[in-house]
Amino acid sequence: MSARTALAALLLATFALGACGDRPDVWDTRADGVRAVGLHSSIALVDDAAHRVLVASPVSGVALARRSVPIGKGVATALPSADRRRLFVLCSGDVPRKKADDQGPSLTIVEDGGAASRRIELQTPLSGLAIDPAGRWVVIYPAGNGRTFVENPNQLVLVDLAAAPEKAVTFRTLRSFGGRPQRLTFTRELALPGGPRHLLVVETEQDLTLLDLDHVQDAIPRPEITVRLTNGLSARAPRPAGVVVDDGEPGKNDDARIAVQLANDSNVFILTLAPNPPGPAGPNDFTPQVNLADVGGPATDLAFVRTDGGLRLAAIVPSARKAVLIEPGTSITTDVPLPEAYARVSLVTDQVAPGAPGGVGEVALLYGGGSSVAFWSLGRTSGQPYRSVEVVNVAGGAAEITSVPPPNQALKVLASPGATGFYVLDLKTRTAAPLTTQRSARIAVSPDGRRLWAFAPGTENLAHIPVSDLAPLPLPLDRPIREVFDVQRGDGGRALLALDARGATGLTLLDAERPDVRAGASFFGLLLEGL
Amino acid sequence: MLTRKKILGLLALAAALLVPATARAQDLDERATISHLGSVQKHTRFGMGLRSQWVPNAGYDPFAKSNYLAAWTFEGSRVLLARRRLSLAVGALIDLGGSSSEARGAETHLGAHRFLVPIEGRYHVRPWLVGFARIAPGAMYMTASIAEASAGQKLDDAGFVFAADASLGAAVLFDSRRNPDGHPPRLWATGEWGYGWTASRRWSFAPDEEDKVTGRAVPTDLGRVAFRGTFFRLGLALSF
Amino acid sequence: MNVRSSFGFDLVVGGALVAALGACSGTSALADAAPRGGAESAPSDPTSGGGSGGAAAPLPPEKEVESSYEVPVATKTFVWVANPRSGRVAYVNAASLEVKTVEAGNGPTHLAAVPGQSDAAIVLNVLSRDATLLRAVNGQVSGKSFKVGAVANTWAVSADGRWAIAWADHRKVQNAPRTQGFQDLAILDLTEKVPPVVLAVGYRPVSVAFSEGGAQAFAVTQDGISVVDLSGAGGPIVAKNVPISDTPIEDPGSRDVSVTPSGKLALIRRDGSSDVTAVNLETSVRTAITLNGPVTDLDLSDTGHRAVAVIRDTATVAILPVPQIAVAPTVFTEVKIPGETVGSVALAAGGNTGLLYSNAIAAERVTVLSLLPTPPVFRTVKLYAPVLAVFLARDASHALVLHDKVAGAAGAFSLVPVASALPARIVETKAPPFAVAFSDAHDRAIVGERGATPDGYGAYLARLPQLTVDRFPLASPPTAVGLVAGAKRAYVAQQHPDGRITFIDLDTGTSRTLTGFELGARVVDGSKP
Q1: Where do the structural domains in chain B lie, given as residue ranges?
Q2: Which of A93, A168, C26, C485 could connect to A105 by a Cys-Cys bridge, CB 3.0–4.6 Å?
Q3: What digits encode the pLDDT tens for the residues A254-294?
């Protein structure tokens, strides 16, 4: 080879080498619009493009530890556990899978703080996720995101978080009479004829399915129980719109009940979970007995309440401006006229008189209609199965109610979307303290129950409101706020993280207990880190 | 910014230049000989060129879609010692390089500038053909910015790190018939291949205008960067 | 046997009966229109007995309302409910409250229990004109169809459960033209030894019953008593028609016919007549038994050995020995009840005790007549509201009296100790009571009340002999009450589009309501493929 040839070859080879090596594709993805989930002592930023969760944990002062936790591709949904100690991220993987190394669907469980995670491989990409408040079960189901050509909407994947990995996943296809699951509800432990049980209640558009979670992994699985809500004589199908569950009296195992409200019918279904009839043993050791009560209009909310006359099911019927008390055993109804068309009910007995002996009677808070909320005392006076309905006027009403955790559990925050201002309702004194805002604001309640945070999404406005004196402290930031999170700090204190979702996401970190913007810290481009 | 098209053009030029150099070399042989190189060997030389380096470092990823980093080179050197075919030259070299890209939707800009002192040992294979080995210690100044939306302003970082190049190359004299005892200007084409090295540095991007930031601005940590990798350089020089 | 108590009403017609009861003041539930009673004494003080008087306005006839309170279809363990719309019959296990349904024919409507078998019922499918026999064995129900062919709305079932006769009671059909005679009886052999057959009997039968042993059936019609021979080799056949009156053109609606269990004798009472006619159904010989005044009520004991006739005008009770009275019409015992107005009698099972009362006037007393001693003895029990109807427990230990026109209250009933001379206990109700049933153990009674508003929907469970009463409010208007012996529960059927029954435990008094029979039966637990 001549010198010229050798030199030309060397130059070309070097050029070729220099042109090789592209950077990872993640840098070409955008990071805006990230999903943020607040956990107990951190926040998790679900970075789908980078197939990771960035967990940011305040450590001490205004120091923020960041940790990347790998997850699968194609995040379908990410939800925290009820106690906010874990984040569940459901991923669909590579769709379609063409090569051997393409990723399959998975569920990643990220611990609070991001120090540990666990991944469970799945077979089918599904997008619906329901989490057991007790922390034992996760149910994955098709929520119709259209990523697969064919889906069976009644196919469930049950993940037992307490089981060994090889036994954690159970596949189940529910029998269907044409319905698709719309809502999944986990019951707490119920005393049933066959022993204590946890049930999964699956509502479709037309019926209800009860699945015994404690026997779903039996060698011969127990079939689910389907309660059809139509008598088959009409094409019109009552549509379930929510369930409430009551375990009945302590010491009895045949009076657990499930009440079902319907979106398009004035009946309320009450299922009593009774012992099986004598005869050949069925596959399940309990059977639901069906009862109906007509409440005069579609019920928008239900609650089991204990009155001086015994257990009742309270149904709220705003179309008739009334509540109806239903005696579950006999379906006898008692109308309670209401001053406004409230749509929601919330039992607040424990907050009003925690630990009080049974003589107080249940107290319920009615809201979600008109320009007031009402306290409904459920006792018995002569001729009336309830004691009183006391109205507290709040301008604009209360479409949403947020509970304040202990030690201030007697407080509720009332707000309406789009309203400029909110109320802090004291359940004990029955006072409603208004707090006005210059523009519509969202309220975040600290998990330790000691303060509120008010912010206007998309603006720099932030205020700290201690519940002890409701004296707002304005804390204007220098960046638009999308959400705020009040989390536990590593040194035992608490930190406020105000999320700026622009670009690669930023945060402003303040001390939550003694907030001072001068002593805070600002973080930028968090999703550029750790790649 | 140097694109691949431009580099290809330069290569073509270099190749084109090589052809006539071969023809002229015969004229030089008639004037200067290997035993009497004269100013063909001992001279002061100024040159410019294009440096292309491959930087397979994660710290560089936000600033370029590929691992390629280009820089314009400006250098000067003088032969201090010469004995027979060998000579030793010392000089100064500046590489002005940079790149721009996007990182997750944010515009990024990088300036990577080397300031080196090349120490070059030369060997005249022919009067018109010199091979050399070079070591060039020095420093690199890197400056970068990210137009990150969550900051509302640019995030900047800059700093010096120790840098050094080690390379092998060759220079070809286009015109060698000039009087070797004089110092007529002579045109050289140079090419070298080597390895560039810098110390690593942790990126730490902070807002340009910190007074507009709430509280303390915590730098964005994009990890460590080190501009290390194979490079080649092509250039032209004029010696006197 | 007393034909007046031999038919059962299904839940669907329960409401119609309630309506009929509400309109039946002044008319008999059995007769067409003519009131009973002839010239009688003036209406007297309701607290005192009425005796014969002068030219006072005649008293209205006694109201025969006890049959309106017949219990719906319950067998030993199950309560059966037909749903004509769905073509299914729901059967509720009263012990476990499990609800299941079974397919019947098209339009299953009229149900009857089949005695002699543990849990069996038969339902008339009005649209497909057939019947389905339903038998529950070990909780599973099987069905068997029988062609009926005839228009029918009522059942009569023999005591041994072999024969079931479907016939049409014209009184349940509104505005039936005279040309509709409802003369067809569909006779079904439930053992299937004989194929179903339709026979024609006299015009517009008012009752159908069987003789002891089931060899014969009797249809009381306006043309007389049609005797159906069930034992013939060729199958059932109308053996003969026995006229029961010397004057065939007399108004048949004013007749009250009782046939003895042996099927050999019929006793006929006519409104305003002092004669009771005894008709030998074998020989067709009629014998007139003349009493001392117009007979206002005649009751035949279930054993068939005694009949009691009440002559209101003379406050006299005639005790007729059966069948001897047919051959010795003047040999009978008369008991005068001085100081009382008695126009009706209710005999207890066995025929040894009867309660005498009158609902033609506002009489607030009943008279207990003990027929065993010779002569019979009686005592009067004071009540505190006018008597409407009387129901005796089968062992005659107690009676339940429904009151009418209760001043200041919507309704009331009284529990009357019959076997012992203890005072009665009155219970005020929130609405007029409309249905009564006693338990087989004679220790419980259930009373249904039905008003116009939900406050008036309720049932009362009475404990005997304690005479304590508990009220159970209901969510829907009740339509029928009954007791299920095998489950020791009382039930109250209610009006609801999806079906509703409340069960009350006789021991604990706890109640549980089931609503939606079709829904309850459509719970799928995976036990069946």
Answers
A1: 4-239
A2: A93
A3: 999 999 999 988 999 999 998 887 776 778 889 898 888 98
Which residue in the set B18, B105, B215 is minimally distant from A522, CB to CB?
B215
Q: Are A527 and A499 in contact (CB under 8 A)?
A: no
Specify the pLDDT at position C116: 81
- Contact C96/A at CB under 8 A: yes
Q: How many CA atoms lie within 13 A of C374 on its CB side?
A: 2
Whether ipTM exceeds 0.95? no
CB contact under 8 A, A330 and C96: no
Residues of chain A contacting C476 with CB distance shorter than 8 Å:
331
Q: With cut-offs at 50, 70 and 90, classify the pLDDT of residue B4.
A: low
Q: Which residue in B53, B146, B191 is closest to A18 by CB distance?
A: B53
Contact flag for B and C (3+ C-beta pairs < 8 Å): no
**Which three-class secondary structure state does DSSP give residue C381?**
strand
List the 43-72 stretch of A: residues with Cβ below 8 A of B.
Answer: 49, 62, 64
Residues 6+ apart with CB under 8 A from A139: A129, A130, A131, A132, A156, A157, A158, A159, A184, A200
Q: How distant is the Cα of B61 from the closest Cα of chain A, in angstroms?
A: 6
What CA–CA distance (Å, rounded) separates A156 from A140? 6
Whole-angstrom Cα distance, residue B38 to residue B43? 9
pLDDT category at B27 given cuts 50, 70, 90 is: very low
A25 Cβ under 8 Å from any chain B Cβ: no
Nearest C-alpha neighbor of B49 from the set A13, A11, A5, A22: A11
d(CA B7, CA B19): 19
Sign, Cα dihedral of A212, A215, A217, A219: negative
Give the pLDDT confidence score for residue C331 in this predicted structure.
Answer: 93
Mean pLDDT estimate for chain C:
83
Neighbours of chain A (3+ CB pairs under 8 A): B, C
Residue C423 preceded by cis peptide, ω within 30 = no
Q: Compute how many other C-beta atoms are within 10 angstroms of the C-beta atom of residue A155.
A: 16
Q: Do A525 and B220 touch (CB under 8 A)?
A: yes
Mean pLDDT of A30-52: 92
The nearest CA of chain A is from the CA of C358 a distance in Å of 37
Better-scored residue on pLDDT, C79 or C404? C79
State whether A27 and B11 contact (CB < 8 Å): no
- The DSSP element (H or E) to which A17 belongs, if any, is helix A3-19
Contacts of A478 in chain B (CB under 8 A): 152, 212-214
- Substitution target from C141, C525, C527 for chain A, most A beta carbons within 10 A: C525
**Chain A residues 277-306 within an 8 A CB cutoff of chain C:** 277-279, 282-284, 287-293
pLDDT of B174 strictly over 70: yes
Do residues A211 and A200 touch, judged by C-beta distance below 8 A?
A: yes
Task: Fill in the amino acid letter for C73.
Answer: V
Name which of A378-392, C153-167, C169-183 the model is least confident about: A378-392
What's the burial of A351, exposed, middle or buried (CB within 10 Å: 0-12/13-18/19+)? Answer: buried
DSSP state of A381: B
Per-residue pLDDT, A491: 94
The shortest CB-CB distance from B215 to any of A503, A517, A528 is to A517
Q: Kindly report the length of chain A.
A: 531
The CATH number for B4-239, chosen from 2.40.160.20, 1.20.140.160, 3.90.640.10, 3.40.50.300, is: 2.40.160.20
For the whole model, what pTM was predicted? 0.75
Q: Do A292 and C473 touch (CB under 8 A)?
A: no
Please report, as a single letter, which amino acid is at residue A37.
Answer: V
In a 13 Å sphere around the CA of C108, the CA atoms on its Cβ side amount to 27
Domain ranges for chain A: 175-258+269-289
Looking at CA atoms only, how far is residue A44 from chain B in angstroms? 17
